[in-house]
Amino acid sequence: MNNKLFDEFLIGSWVTYFDYGIMSQEEQMKRLTELGVNFHPFPFSWYDEETHDDIEDWKEIDRLCSKYGVLYGMECFGDKRGTSEEAFNKHIAFAKEMGENLAVFHIFDEPMGCEVKMLGEWVRKYRENNPDVWPLFNLNPSSVSVRRLQATYEDHLQAVIDAAGAENIAFLSHDFYPFMKDGRLKDAIFADMENIRKAAYDNGKLRTHAFLQAFGGGACRMPTIEEIRWQAYAYLAYGFKALSYFNMVSPRDNGGSFTEGLIMQDGSIPNPELLAATGALNYEIRAVGNEMLDMQTVHAYHTQDISTYYAKGVVELLPKDYCVRPLDGERKFIITEHEDKDRFMIFNNSFERLEKSEFYVSGVNEIYVFDPEEKKYKKCDYKGGILTVSFKEGEGLFFKTI
Questions:
Q1: Cα 72 from Cα 76, distance rounded (Å)
Q2: d(Cα 221, Cα 159) in Å, to the nearest integer?
């Protein structure tokens, strides 16, 4: 069985390419690799069917992905779904000609309640016919109405797992885009993170994946690098094992839906500094994600109450006498508890720079923090039961203790 999909933390993008007449596929892949992207679920120019239509297209994709060390997904049918006999037969036949970097078949996005049974049947069919390539699908956020999901969000997640079979699911995945043009932050995102973490953990410790907002258009605005960092580390705090951007390359503007992005469909880069900072962040997240890859998150405790309707009774609050807690009870953090009791993460749940923060940490002798740049642990300032550390905006720090 091909398990390369789970050997390292993945950073992907829903849309990864624009017109090859502007920049060749290889040049674009090389740049994306340099920006830290190691997973291409759709490794082709999004709006040109000729680039993912026949076996020769896919042989070239396979060659390039092998050359640049990119895992990729196959989707060779025009509607970008794998849930038809024609798409299925094409995928299974083409996959026989590909190398081991072919990791997933993309089959469906955001199923409604009435589509869950169908999705599960296709997941099982793909697994039966090619157990080396995992079927990939993505779920709605909880903001989709109960009427459309035909269940509560928790029940919808369980229905999907039951329909597909936990053993057949590569990632329990969802999208949630929290940054709105009107200035709102949709903090129901934390309820979704917890629901997915818990559903995954309770069903055999499934791997989890989510999309990061990196676009502006419609009701959404383009995030800053601090807000992109905040999204990525929030998901790490909840134990997610892979992330993808929506998007590294913006889709075409569709009536105002996609007006801002990191790389546009005409090849332009609106904010080179933001793109470079995102690339640096990708390597940072991959390093921390790899360090946490084999660990299971059992709690993600908030130090401040989240009183929104969706979060009430779902998001966990830090117990009063917990072994790790901030001295300043007004600051917002998430403190992650793992099965490995000698490890924990503290996530700065704020866009404000915190030069220095102090935490009570009990029952340990020394504390070390993981440095993603040097990929090693460094001894922390820990005296008299007080840990003193500094955070960037939206940053998470990963610790081990002795």
A1: 13
A2: 33
* Helix extents (H) in 104-241: 116-129, 146-149, 153-164, 189-202, 225-237
Q: How far apart are CA 107 and CA 87, in angstroms?
A: 9
Strands 381-383 and 386-391: antiparallel
- Choose the weakest-confidence range: 56-70, 234-248, 256-270, 349-363: 349-363
Q: Name the pairing type of β-strands 10-13 and 242-246.
A: parallel
Residue 182 in tokens: 């009107």
Separation CA 244–CA 173 (nearest Å):
10
Query: What tens digit of pLDDT does each residue of 142-201 get?
Result: 988 778 899 999 999 999 999 999 999 999 999 999 999 999 999 889 999 999 999 999
Two structure tokens written together for 376: 């090693």
Number of alpha carbons in the 13 Å side-chain half-sphere of residue 25: 20
Residue in 146, 228, 188 with CA at minimum distance from that of residue 312: 188
DSSP string over 275-304: HHHHHHHHHHHHHHHHHTTT--EEEEEESS
CA 12, chain centre distance (Å):
8
**What distances in angstroms separate CA 336 from CA 150, 158, 221, 387, one per listed residue?**
32, 24, 29, 16
Measure the CA–CA gap between 241 and 289, rounded to whole angstroms.
7
Which of 222, 229, 238 has the alpha carbon at shortest distance from 177? 222
Banded pLDDT at 49 (limits 50, 70, 90)? confident
- State how far the Cα of 120 lies from the Cα of 159, in Å rounded to an integer: 9
- The helix/strand/coil state of 73 is strand
SS3 of 217, please?
A: strand
Task: State in Å, rounded, how far the first CA of the chain is from the last one.
Answer: 37
Joined together, the tokens standing for residue 36 give 């830290």
Under 8 Å CB-to-CB from 268, ≥6 apart: which residues? none
Give the span between the Cα atoms of 244 and 12, in whole angstroms: 4
Q: Kindly report the pTM of this predicted structure.
A: 0.97
Match 């597909």 to its residue by tokens: 164
DSSP state of 49: G
Amino acid code (one letter) for 324: V
Could you tell me if residue 289 is left (phi over 0), alpha (psi between -120 and 50 degrees) or otherwise beta?
A: alpha
Q: Residue holding tokens 């705090």? A: 237
